[in-house]
Design brief:
The chain is mainly beta and 150 residues long. It has one helix at 2-16, and strands spanning 35-47, 54-58, 65-69, 74-80, 87-97, 100-108, 113-124, 128-136, 140-149. This is Lipocalin-like domain-containing protein. It comes from Hymenobacter polaris.
């Protein structure tokens, strides 16, 4: 009986010691198969010449942006681009390891390109997804926070 009590205490201690920076859980069936709509994007631009950083809000491109995780490997991205006559649709694969979400091929509205892309998942719940992305242009370092909901 004493051994059982110590085992239960040890298990509770281990559960209570989870670090805040531990990886988020991988997407589960309850988080898959529904569309996530981009709500906002906050961007910080820091010039590499040492000038002060600028923080601003970026509007979604020409209408709603929907990101759908079809299953644990495939996603779709649907949006309206300013230069396209109709909706823009991508189907590709992704992987989710630790806190990194890597898209094999995705349109980045932050850089305006279709390419592989890795973002950090900062928050993941049943109704909210927050992605962090960092990139550089020749003269500026960018940090973007993209918030999705459903």
């Amino acid at each position: 009986m004493q051994r059982l009590a110590w085992s239960a205490l040890a298990a509770l201690t281990l559960v209570g010691c989870q670090k805040a920076d531990d990886p988020l859980p991988a997407p589960t069936p309850t988080l898959l198969g529904q569309r996530w709509m981009l709500q906002s994007e906050q961007r910080e631009a820091t010039p590499l010449d040492g000038s002060p950083a600028t923080v601003y809000t970026v509007a979604p491109p020409a209408g709603p942006v929907f990101l759908t995780y079809v299953d644990e490997q495939h996603f779709t991205l649907d949006m309206q681009l300013p230069s396209a006559p109709g909706p823009y649709h991508i189907e590709s694969t992704y992987s989710y390891q630790g806190q990194d979400l890597t898209f094999a091929s995705s349109y980045s509205w932050t850089t305006g390109t279709v390419a592989p892309r890795t973002v950090r998942v900062a928050e993941l719940s049943a109704h909210r997804l927050v992605l962090l992305e960092v990139w550089e242009s020749p003269d500026t370092h960018y940090f973007s926070t993209q918030t999705f909901s459903r």
